[in-house]
Automatic annotation (TrEMBL):
It comes from Kribbella pratensis. This is Aryl-alcohol dehydrogenase-like predicted oxidoreductase. InterPro entries: Aldo-Keto_reductase (IPR050791), NAD(P)_OxRdtase_dom_sf (IPR036812), NADP_OxRdtase_dom (IPR023210). Residues 10-255 form the NADP-dependent oxidoreductase domain. Keywords: Oxidoreductase.
Length: 269
C-alpha cells in the first residue's frame, strides 16, 4: 500500500454540487494530472439531483487513459435537493459497486470506501464484509472506510483487511488524531479530507508569517505540515481552480525544514 502514501489527492466534490462549466472543470483536473496528481477522489454522493452520477462520471472521464488511481465511495447518496441517505447493507454496497463499475467502464475499481459509516444504521461489519467479498471477486482492488472512529476500525478489522481510511483532518484542527494513530499502528494509508477546513477557526500566525516571508500560500504550508505529520497520511485537496490545484500539489515538493517545523509546532501550542 506504499503507493497510496505521501501524496496530494484531488477531490472532485467541489466540481460536482452545482452546475459548472464541465469542460473547464475537466481541463482543471487534467492540468492537475499533467502536473503529477496521482489520485482522484470522488463518490456516488458527489452529484446533483439532475445528474445523480455526476461526480463519478467526471472523475471517470478525467482519469481515462491516464493511469491515475481513483478512489470512490458508496452507501451514501443524494435523495433530494437537501436529503441524503446512508446505507451500508451488503445489498446496497454490491449494487453501488456495480453502478460504479459501469460508470468507470472497468472490471475493477482501484479503491472503494463505505462513505458514511458514522451515519449508517447497519453495523460496520456488514458493509466491510460485503466490500471484502467484492475484493475477493476482483471487483474492488482496495477496501476503504470513511468517517470512522477507532472503535469502528477495530470492529471492521476483526472481520476484513482495511486498505485505506478517509476522515476529516486538518493541520490545525487535527480532528482525527486517534484514527490517524490507529492507521500508523496498522500501516493503513490515511486520507485527510477537507484538510484546509479546521472544525474551529484556530489562528496560525507563525505559519502565516512564514508563508508571507517565503512568498507561498498558507494553504500550501498547511498541506505540507499535514504530509510531514505522519508517514501514512495523504491529503485530499478540494481545490477547483488551476492555480489552487497546482499550488496544493506543490505542497509535496515544498521543503520540510526547521523554520517550517518550528512555525507549525508554535501554532499548535
Ligand atoms: N469522505 C468524506 O465524507 C468527505 C467529505 C468532504 C470532502 N471529502 C473529500 O475531500 C475533498 C476536499 O474537501 P473540501 O473541498 O471540503 O476541502 P478543502 O480541500 O479543505 O478546501 C477546499 C477549499 O480550499 C480552497 N483551496 C484549496 N487549495 C488551495 C490553495 N492552494 N490556495 C488557496 N485556496 C485553496 C479551495 O478553493 P478553490 O475552490 O477556489 O480552488 C476551496 O475553497 C473533496 O473534494 C472530497 O473529495 C470527503
Amino acid at each position: 500500500m506504499k503507493e497510496l502514501v505521501g501524496r496530494v489527492a484531488l477531490g472532485v466534490a467541489g466540481f460536482s454540487f452545482a452546475p459548472r462549466d464541465r469542460s473547464a472543470d475537466l481541463a482543471t483536473i487534467r492540468a492537475g494530472i499533467a502536473a503529477g496528481t496521482a489520485i482522484l477522489d470522488t463518490a456516488r454522493a458527489y452529484a446533483r439531483v439532475d445528474a445523480p452520477l455526476y461526480g463519478e462520471e467526471l472523475a471517470a472521464e478525467a482519469a481515462r487513459g491516464t493511469g491515475v488511481i481513483v478512489g470512490t465511495k458508496g452507501g451514501h447518496s443524494r435523495t433530494g435537493e437537501s436529503t441524503w441517505d446512508a446505507d451500508i447493507s451488503a445489498r446496497r454496497i454490491r449494487s453501488d459497486v456495480e453502478t460504479s463499475l459501469r460508470v468507470f467502464g472497468r472490471e475493477r475499481l482501484d479503491l472503494y470506501y463505505l462513505h458514511r459509516v458514522d451515519l449508517a444504521e447497519q453495523p460496520v461489519e456488514e458493509g466491510v464484509s460485503a466490500l471484502a467479498e467484492l475484493r475477493d471477486e476482483g471487483k474492488v482492488a482496495r477496501v476503504g472506510l470513511s468517517n470512522v472512529s477507532v472503535a469502528d476500525l477495530e470492529r471492521a478489522a476483526a472481520v476484513a483487511r482495511v486498505d485505506a481510511v478517509q476522515n476529516h483532518h486538518s493541520a490545525i484542527g487535527r480532528e482525527s488524531l486517534d484514527v490517524l494513530a490507529w492507521c500508523e499502528a496498522n500501516e493503513v494509508p490515511f486520507f485527510a479530507y477537507s484538510p484546509l477546513r479546521p472544525a474551529s477557526a484556530a489562528p496560525s500566525p507563525h505559519l502565516a508569517a512564514l508563508a508571507d516571508e517565503r512568498g507561498v500560500s498558507l494553504q500550501r504550508l498547511y498541506l505540507r505540515a499535514l504530509l510531514a505529520s505522519s508517514p501514512v497520511l495523504s491529503v485530499v485537496s478540494g481545490a477547483t481552480r488551476p492555480e489552487t490545484v497546482l499550488d496544493s500539489l506543490a505542497a509535496e515538493s515544498e521543503p520540510w525544514d526547521e523554520p517550517l517545523a518550528t512555525a507549525y509546532a508554535a501554532d499548535l501550542t
